[in-house]
Write a structure and sequence with these properties.
Strand content: 5-15%
Shape: globular
Number of strands: 5
Number of helices: 12
Radius of gyration: 19 Å
Distance between the termini: 50 Å
Helix content: 40-55%
Strand order of the largest sheet: 2-3-1-4-5
């Protein structure tokens, strides 16, 4: 193999294996919500969907299993945060997101600069909350990563393994580049650094600073959309994050039972009905 062919092989990306959506069915990216996780990102996803957008969120990654989204995002993050594997360009991310017209939450927010380059005309929303309350909320993610059930399933189901790795790299990127994901010492500074960076990167006329309690008014005015009749959605608050992951564990375990991986395990363990198993 020639050196040029070898280099080409080394730089092959997983995303190149997956078929593109037909051009006439691709979405135009209109909204980039670049606030960090646990700042009302899932509520904003529900709100943007209500306003007619199709919004990407971490919760959408499993819905794109056939397009390899867990694997592609993981590959992109390994390159960006660990320096291993092929680098994902703004064009690659546009490919990943071509079925959506808005984004929020991880993994997208971890590629804010690339998305701002890929979609220079998109409006930007910066979801925010009090830093100290954010730190308290992030502790829930640390807890989920430590669940015995999640770590067992990560060894049996590759997508769950990739998901846990994505969470760990995300938190590490908010502390200090290259740091241990469990190091909380600089997490608050990382939070503030991200928001300062987005404010410095986006012209004021394209940027909306937003908190969930602001409701529909400023959001609809910024996006030039009519006000919905119902209340602004509030989802994934407090223990709802745990409930979502309880469901993820149960569904994954049942799937593995069907596949035959866990057929020898007691039913109670398979379904993880005893909460003690989560901690």
């Amino acid at each position: 193999m020639t050196s040029s062919a070898s280099m080409s092989h080394q730089q092959a990306k997983l995303i190149d294996k997956y078929a593109r959506t037909k051009p006439e069915k691709r979405q135009e990216m209109q909204v980039l919500a670049l606030g960090l996780s646990r700042t009302g990102t899932m509520s904003l996803q529900a709100a943007l969907n209500k306003l007619g957008y199709k919004c990407y969120h971490m919760a959408e990654v499993p819905n794109n299993k056939k397009k390899g989204h867990f694997w592609c995002w993981h590959e992109a993050m390994l390159s960006k945060f660990k320096g291993t594997g092929p680098k994902y360009t703004p064009a690659d991310l546009a490919h990943l997101l071509e079925d959506y017209s808005a984004v929020t939450d991880i993994p997208c927010v971890l590629f804010s600069d690339e998305l701002l380059t890929a979609f220079p005309h998109a409006k930007v929303i910066l979801t925010n909350r009090d830093p100290d309350r954010w730190l308290q909320s992030i502790e829930k993610i640390y807890s989920i990563i430590r669940w015995k059930s999640m770590n067992l399933l990560a060894r049996l189901e590759p997508d769950i393994g990739k998901y846990l790795s994505i969470l760990q790299m995300a938190i590490a990127s908010w502390t200090y580049p290259g740091s241990d994901w469990q190091d909380r010492s600089q997490l608050r500074a990382g939070f503030l650094r991200h928001y300062q960076h987005i404010r410095a990167s986006v012209p004021p006329d394209r940027l909306l600073e937003f908190r969930s309690e602001d409701g529909w008014g400023p959001l609809c005015a910024f996006l030039e959309k009519p006000l919905p009749a119902e209340k602004y959605p509030f989802v994934n608050a407090g223990n709802e994050l745990f409930q979502i992951h309880y469901a993820l564990v149960a569904v994954t375990a049942i799937s593995l039972v069907v596949k035959g991986f866990l057929w020898v395990a007691p039913v109670g363990v398979v379904l993880f009905g005893v909460r003690k198993f989560y901690v």
